[in-house]
Amino acid sequence: MTAPEYTLRRAILRALIQCGGYLCPESALKDQVSLNVVPLPSQSDFDEALRTVDAERLVINGQGPIERTWKITEAGKVWAKENRV
User: CB 3.0 to 4.6 Å from 69: which of 2, 43, 61, 64, for a disulfide?
Assistant: First the structure.
């Protein structure tokens, strides 16, 4: 994992932790991550990072009425704690 990938992963998990266990719309998640990652991640980098953490079961997604929603899993919380997110 490269440093930018690690930074994006941490930002995604941090944003989902801040949601307090509620589902987070993808657009709100992207906005929150964009505030915390420099340089600003491209849409493709953000999408790839989401696919990766989803494949590793650190997050789960669902389909909201308008867009996908995301929530951190227990495994994601453990990863975040181990990596001091």
Answer: 64
